[in-house]
Write a structure and sequence with these properties.
The strands form three sheets. A nine-stranded mixed β-sheet has the order 9-8-7-5-4-3-1-10-11. Strands 2-6 form a two-stranded antiparallel sheet. Strands 12-13 form a two-stranded antiparallel ribbon. The chain starts with a helix and ends in a 15-residue tail after the last helix. The protein is of the alpha/beta class and 351 residues long. The chain is built from twelve helices and 13 strands. Helix 6 packs across helix 8. The chain is 36% helix and 17% strand. A hairpin with a 5-residue loop joins strand 10 and strand 11.
């Protein structure tokens, strides 16, 4: 019994040393709660890949293994390729992450939210609740996001606002995760009004960076010439000014050249990481789409997709995975070049 206790004690000391002394503080850790979803968005890899897709759910045992690293992480984001509220232990994970003293956020399609859920996330201390949209009209949003409804999402936003007011809570801050598709560009101008009317604090506008097929390449918003770039910049300036007038914040994509002082990749590879629902550690969510093999598109060309993982937290503790030779080499290549294969021509490197 003494020998077992000694081993347990030594293991605890080893883990403490690795996490508290050797593990560098992180800006964020993205944790995939599940890759299953109740929607079928047309631009999502889950919809396009169909039967190839692997629905995975993180276990509490696996989640607990990330907790020591969370205490040295500014933001823990509980969402990957699926809908977090499908996981029966989602709120338990929120509470566990909050005990680690970090900011905790998630993104949802909103369709599963009800008054009980909202009261529970307020009580659990969730800091950020983002809801996904791809348009400010049903014509564009509902067509792109099958299985969701703009009208119902707006009702959910109003419900969240009402419950927060009733409970006198400032959290969770309500955000929008807004997918800007080329076909829905005309909707963007109305985004500030929609936010102001439905209690949304800020929106992050993204473009389609992962194309699960050539058919979706036409939806990628990337300026084809200087005129289109100027037109987009004018639209973005207009939207930003309107947002400022209404007191909301909108983060818009940049299509300019990357400055010397800016990060090599907007996924912040040097100070952030992704943990999939099955425990694999990857540089970002785009490197860990839950398919064994697939084809995807890059700049109008077909490429072969393979998941990239540098270890699994069910086998090795996170600090050792972060420091291992292959993972460290990946980060070094991204800075010094040539970039790793999965990062070649990835639009995240220029944004």
């Amino acid at each position: 019994m003494l020998k077992v206790s000694s081993r347990v004690l030594l293991a605890g000391m080893y883990s403490w040393w690795e996490h508290e002394v050797l593990f560098e503080p992180k800006d964020w850790i993205q944790v995939e709660v599940t890759s299953a979803c109740n929607a079928a968005c047309g631009y999502c890899p889950r919809t396009v890949y169909g039967r190839q897709w692997q629905n995975r759910y993180i276990t509490l045992e696996t989640f607990q293994k990330i907790l020591p690293a969370m205490s040295k992480t500014a933001l823990v984001y509980l969402q990957g390729w699926g809908e977090p509220f499908l996981h029966p232990d989602f709120l338990t994970m929120v509470r566990m992450a909050k005990k680690a003293k970090c900011i905790v956020g998630t993104t949802t399609n909103g369709m599963l939210l009800h008054a009980g859920h909202v009261r529970e996330v307020v009580a659990a201390g969730l800091d950020i609740l983002a809801i996904s949209l791809a348009g400010t009209t049903p014509r564009h949003n509902d067509a792109a996001r099958a299985g969701t409804s703009l009208v119902k999402v707006l009702e959910k936003l109003d419900l969240i606002h009402q419950i927060k007011q009733k409970q006198r809570s400032k959290t969770p801050a309500v955000h929008l995760a807004y997918m800007l598709l080329r076909s829905g560009l005309e909707d963007l101008e109305d985004l500030p009004r929609l936010m102001a009317e439905h209690g949304v604090d800020q929106a992050v506008v993204s473009v389609l960076d992962f194309e699960p097929g050539l058919k979706l390449s036409q939806e990628v918003l990337a300026p084809q010439d200087d005129k289109e770039r100027r037109d987009l910049e004018e639209l973005f300036v207009k939207v930003s000014r309107r947002a400022a007038e209404l007191g909301v914040v909108i983060h818009l994509p940049s299509f300019g050249l990357r400055g010397e002082d800016e990060p090599v990749c907007s996924e912040n590879i040097q100070r952030a990481l992704f943990v999939s629902a099955d425990g694999d550690v990857s540089p970002c969510v785009y490197a860990n789409v839950p398919v064994d093999q697939a084809e995807y598109a890059r700049q109008g060309h077909v490429a072969h997709y393979h998941r990239v993982s540098y270890g699994n937290i069910n086998v090795e503790i996170l600090p050792k995975i972060w420091r291992n030779t292959e993972y460290a080499g990946f980060r070094e290549k991204l800075v010094q070049g040539p970039p790793p294969e999965i990062c070649l021509s990835c639009p995240k490197r220029g944004r």
